[in-house]
Amino acid sequence: FSEDVAGKVVIITGASSGIGESLAYEYAKRGACLVLAARRERSLQEVAETARDLGSPDVVVVRADVSKVEDCRKVVDQAMNHFGRLDHLVNNAGISSVAMLEEVEDVTDFRAIMDVNFWGYVYMTRFAAPYLRNSRGRIIVLSSSASWLPAPRMSFYNASKAAVAQFFETLRVEFGPDIGITLVTPGFIESELTQGKFFNKAGRLEVDQDMRDVQVSMIPIQRVESCAKAIVRSAMRGERYVTEPAWFRTTFMWK
Ligand code: NDP
Questions:
Q1: Given CA atoms 60, 64, 70, 72 in this order, what sign does their dihedral have?
Q2: Rounded Cα gap, residues 15 and 17, in angstroms
Q3: Given this model, what pLDDT does residue 95 score?
Q4: 9-250: which CATH topology?
Q5: What is the pLDDT of residue 220?
Q6: Quick one: which atom of ligand 1 is closest to the CA of 145?
Q7: For position 255, what pLDDT does the model report?
Q8: Start-to-end CA span in the chain (Å)
Q9: Ligand 1 binding pocket mutation candidate from 23, 63, 75, 92 (most atoms within 8 A of CB)
Q10: Domain extents in the chain
Q11: Dihedral-angle region of residue 174 (phi above 0 means left; psi in -120 to 50 means alpha; beta otherwise)
Q12: Residue 28's pLDDT is what?
């Protein structure tokens, strides 16, 4: 079994960089129509341009912050208004964090991690589900090997990725055969997220070079392109899980 995605409609959140951007290109090469969502509209327009060149028949860009419920509704509405159907939802937009719990002065600053990584996926899925059920579509979920890995200083991020995994394992039962779920648990993939751009202990985004150095020295880094290829191939085959030996090894290399 391999689903033909040519002419199908795919929403990708967090498509302005990294894995989401590469996923847009993988779907475009196979002729899928795309709805690309993120906060940086200019980057999205550039990704859309490349996706059209690669073979996507039609691309729509939606500026959206997935931590806001109305923005998520807008993404799904625009997809339906423009294309009249929805086949795949790729829940990918995410942010990371680096902080020891006891160094954090105000833990409420870290709610932002759950707002994007967990609630963003929940909102998108709630609005898309009726249309995915109609098309017997699929949800691709970017969790992480961090969902199993007790990597210190990443407790907020790790917890958000574990929450996502269990949420969608449960939806798998609720949706039955009508909506497929492909749960992806990448290891360490080279992207903006892993270039030391993190929430610091004060809850602000900054570059953490120490963290970056540790990661680079200890963990086999994979490229976004090969990650995106593996994801789209597995989704088209209707696979329930995507992991790779190199991603899995990340778990054992972290000290
Ligand atoms: P990037 O930082 O390159 O991409 C993250 C994307 O999410 C960007 O397009 C960003 O766009 C978007 N985004 C962030 N916050 C929001 C928001 N509030 N609303 C809408 N979009 C948002 O990271 P990756 O490509 O590496 O990460 C993609 C996914 O893969 C994440 O869920 C991450 O947790 C997961 N993952 C990554 C791994 C890695 O090693 N890189 C490993 C395992 C999982 P913008 O800023 O324009 O909004």
A1: positive
A2: 6
A3: 94
A4: Rossmann fold (3.40.50)
A5: 63
A6: 43
A7: 43
A8: 40
A9: 92
A10: 9-250
A11: alpha
A12: 98
Contact present, 14 and 124 (Cβ < 8 Å): no
Give pLDDT < 70 ranges for the chain.
Answer: 195-208, 211-212, 214-220, 245-255
Asked if residue 140 lies in contact with residue 132, where contact means CB atoms within 8 angstroms, the answer is no
| Ligand 1 centroid from CA 94, angstroms | 4
Cα–chain center distance at 6: 21
Query: Which has the closest alpha carbon to 32: 175, 168, 135, 180?
Result: 135
Type of residue numbered 107? V
- In short, whether 92's Cβ falls inside 6 Å of ligand 1 is yes
- Residues 3 and 26: their CA atoms lie apart, in Å, by 14
Q: How much of the chain is in helix, strand and coil states, percent to nearest 5? A: 50, 15, 30
- pLDDT value at residue 75: 99
Amino acid identity of 115? D
What's the pLDDT at 11?
A: 99
ipTM given for this complex: 0.99
Residue 19: per-residue pLDDT:
97
Annotated catalytic residue within 27, 121, 131, 157: 157
- Whole-prediction pTM value? 0.94
The answer to whether 241 is a known catalytic residue is no
H helical segments located in 55-154: 69-83, 111-114, 120-135
